[in-house]
Amino acid sequence: MTVQPNSMEARDKAYHMHSYTNARALERDGALVMERGEGIYVYDNNGKKYIEGMSGLWSVAVGFGENRLVEAATRQMSKLPYYHTFTSRANGPSIELAEKLVQMAPVPMSKAFFTNSGSEANDTAIKMIWYRSNAMGKPEKKKIISRIKGYHGVTAVSASLTGLPNNHRSFDLPLPGIFHTSCPHYRAFKLEGESEAAFVERCAKELEDLILREGPETVAAFIGEPVMGAGGVIVPPAGYWPAIQAILKKYDILFIADEVICGFGRTGNMFGTQTFDLQPDFMTLSKQISSSYQPISALLINENVYAPIADESAKIGTFGHGVTAAGHPVAAAVALENIAIIEERDLVGNVRALAPKFQSRLKELEGHPLAIEARGIGLIGALELAPREGFATGQLGPKLFSIMVEKGLISRAIGDSLALCPPLIINESQLDVLFDTFEASLDVLKKQLDA
Ligand code: PMP
After folding, report:
1. pLDDT tens digits, residue range 33-80?
2. What is the pLDDT of residue 277?
3. Left, alpha or beta for 179 (phi > 0: left; psi -120 to 50: alpha)?
4. Phi and psi of 386, rounded to 5°?
5. Strands (E), 91-191
6. Rounded distance, CA 321 to CA 267, Å?
7. By alpha-carbon position, which residue is closest to atom 12 of ligand 1?
8. Overall CATH class of domain 69-344
9. d(CA 352, CA 88)
10. Who contacts 38 (Cβ-Cβ below 8 Å, separation ≥6)?
11. Quick check: 325 pLDDT over 80?
């Protein structure tokens, strides 16, 4: 891309350090600047149209340009643009949203607690767990287990939970007391000749061995995404979650389901917790809760978690945690309207109706000479490219990503896996265009590599 002086790209390079970006590459190449969006499409500042095959960052469930969300925000902005939820204060939308979320929860939940990002929600979950263990006179019960390739955010605690090298390397993370157990990606981590059932058994045994090594009385909680997203879209094998949950029960370990991607319909049920029959004590929610039109996240906690924390707050005088914009009335109003749209338009039904086509077209791509594995569930999936001589791991994915962008499809390269997570409003013919473009891009890459 040639960057014109004084263009948006030039000003961006001059003044803006980006999240998750190679800063020197940005200085050289400039950013892709988006200007507007409509439905499943976004348009850059040169007017080029793209299918947003990732819903932004796994978030824009109802699509771009949804006017009902604009109106909900405007109404609330005019009425009460801000009020906080500290020191026994509240505002209408935060109350309504807390009630709605607790009522929607697929397992018994007692309270909702608001934050602004997935990272903060998970950070808060861990702080609640530490506080609760102290409240219960078990100060040694503080260790947390997460998984290799799990993604839970980037704040100091959440980044420690995340099981990816880029979030630890050069940051001196993970923090002590946070451990990572095996990743349930069968194809990548199975032993020679190991059946899926034997693999699941080994994952469960590795978790149990870690708990026993550390001492069960010191392990407080386990966190996991029902389907791993940013780690490469990893759908665990059948039997995995029952085996893991049995061990958590056996050693009295709390379970945090990180529903930040799966929540609000992505896997074909309102929550991943239903798809995989989970019994979490915490659910962390964000992204599709507001289709990311406003930053907001929530934790749902059950009574077993809430009661000791509430008692301790009475003893100390406060639960000393919370952020300025927690339960922000505009964000909460937008989330309520967004959830109403998901329910009224039965977008979960749309996911169920389109999932067979989405998954079968993805599976067909597994037959492409460049591919090694297709995986997914509902309207989330990834195609992994096969290793190739002369290319380091993680080199081919970005090449394919660039070809797709050129052809007007935004996916996401996670190493050599290309992820897809389109808005839940997508229709059948749009899905066909998406996969036709994916396939054509694979052919272009193959030609380039063969030349
Ligand atoms: N959990 C999961 C499962 C996520 O996918 C993400 C974001 N990709 C987060 C937590 C962190 O959310 P945020 O970026 O809003 O902090």
Report:
1. 999 999 999 999 999 999 999 999 999 999 999 999 999 999 999 999
2. 98
3. beta
4. -75, 150
5. 111-115, 143-147, 178-181
6. 32
7. 118
8. alpha beta
9. 41
10. 63, 64, 65
11. yes
Query: 421: left (phi > 0), else alpha (psi -120 to 50), else beta?
Result: beta
Asked if 161 contacts 256 with a C-beta cutoff of 8 angstroms, the reply is no
Type of residue numbered 138: K
Atom of ligand 1 at shortest distance to CA of 57? 8
How far is the centre of ligand 1, averaged over its atoms, from the C-alpha of 260 (Å)? 6
Are 424 and 347 in contact by the 8 Å Cβ rule? The answer is yes
Fold type of domain 32-62+346-450: Aspartate Aminotransferase, domain 1 (3.90.1150)
Amino acid at 158: S
Helix and strand counts by DSSP (H, E) for the chain: 16, 15
In testing the pocket of ligand 1, which one of 60, 146, 151 has its CB within 8 Å of the most ligand atoms? 151
Show Cβ contacts of residue 222 under 8 Å, excluding neighbours closer than 6 positions.
144, 145, 146, 207, 244, 248, 253, 254, 255, 256
Measure Cα distances from 133 to 138, 199, 280, 304 in Å: 5, 33, 17, 12
- How many Å lie between the centroid of ligand 1 and the Cα of residue 314? 32
Give every CB contact of residue 234 below 8 A, 6+ residues apart in sequence: 149, 183, 184, 185, 227, 228, 375
Q: Where are the domains of the chain?
A: 32-62+346-450, 69-344
Which are the contacts of 204, defined by CB distance < 8 A and separation ≥ 6? 240, 243, 244, 246, 247
**For the chain, percent of residues with pLDDT exceeding 70:** 99
Q: What is the mean pLDDT of residues 425-439?
A: 98
Peptide linkage before 176 cis (omega within 30 of 0): no
Lookup result for tokens 């939940």: 109
pLDDT tens digits, one per residue of 341-379: 999 999 999 999 999 999 999 999 999 999 999 999 999
Interface TM-score (ipTM) > 0.95? yes
Both tokens assigned to 317:
């005088």
Residue-wise pLDDT for 292-308, tens only, equals 999 999 999 999 999 99
Taking the centre of ligand 1 as the mean of its atom positions, its distance from the CA of residue 230, in whole angstroms, is: 8
- Across residues 278-283, what is the average pLDDT? 98
DSSP annotation string for 407-434: TTEE-EEETTEEEE---TT--HHHHHHH
**CB-based contact 322:86 (threshold 8 Å):** yes
